[in-house]
Amino acid sequence: MTREILFALVGFAFATSVTPGPNNMMLLASGVNFGFRRTVPHMLGVSLGHGLMVFLVGVGLAQIFTHWPGLDLALKVVSVAYMLWLAWKIAHAAPPREGDAGGRPFTFLQAAAFQWVNPKAWAMALTAVTVYAGGDGWGAMGVVAAVFCATNLPSVSVWAYAGQALRQWLTTNRRLQVFNWTMALLLVLSLWPVLA
Q1: pLDDT of amino acid 101
Q2: What pLDDT is stored for residue 88 in this prediction?
Q3: Within a 10 A sphere around the Cβ of 67, how many other Cβ atoms?
Q4: What is the pLDDT of residues 77-94, one digit of tens each?
Q5: Which of 8, 79, 96, 135 is the most buried (most CB within 10 A)?
Q6: Is residue 55 part of a domain?
């Protein structure tokens, strides 16, 4: 991989990781509801889970979708249904109370698994593999995956930190309710590219 391609890949990874999407909306909501520290496993799951996804897509999953295009539609249906369910959960989240253990942020494994039903993650992975790895083998796939991991973690951390910063303003139940409904709506709107 040339230096120019590597710089272009870093720019692509940053632009797609830092812009709004399902992961970032959920991290913002998690930062508000649980704080930055408790959201760290979620952030790590997003970054490492997506890096693994990029690698696996590069070494073979893209070929499966080429041979069985119906699987792509099935994945989209499952993804949309799951995202709508998550939006409902976010919209109806109860405000956290002192000592309340009922609400929990995503775990590392939940966040990593979420990448497989996240339409934006799929688009990012397929584009990165086809444009920047270009069939150059496992080594190139490893570089693309590593660049995504290294770029993604600081990018998604901004969203969780912003959520924690908003936490002070969202001290009333009404404000938190409006925020959660807004995040749910933005999560649903992030599905527009898949549905359009």
Answers
A1: 46
A2: 83
A3: 7
A4: 776 777 677 778 777 766
A5: 79
A6: yes
Question: Measured between alpha carbons, how far is 196 from 194 in angstroms, rounded to an integer?
Answer: 6
Q: Are 163 and 27 in contact (CB under 8 A)?
A: yes
Going by C-alpha positions, the residue among 110, 102, 100, 135 that lies closest to residue 45 is: 110
Task: Give tens-digit pLDDT for 135-189.
Answer: 567 788 888 899 999 999 999 999 999 989 888 787 777 877 887 788 778 767 7
Beta-carbon contacts of 108 under 8 Å, excluding residues fewer than 6 positions away, are: 41, 42, 44, 45, 48
187 Cβ contact list (under 8 Å, min separation 6): 22, 25, 26, 83, 86, 87, 90
Has residue 98 been placed in a domain?
no
The domain in which residue 38 lies consists of 3-93+106-195
Burial class (CB in 10 A: 0-12, 13-18, 19+), 60: exposed
* Burial group, residue 84, by CB count within 10 angstroms (0-12, 13-18, 19+): middle
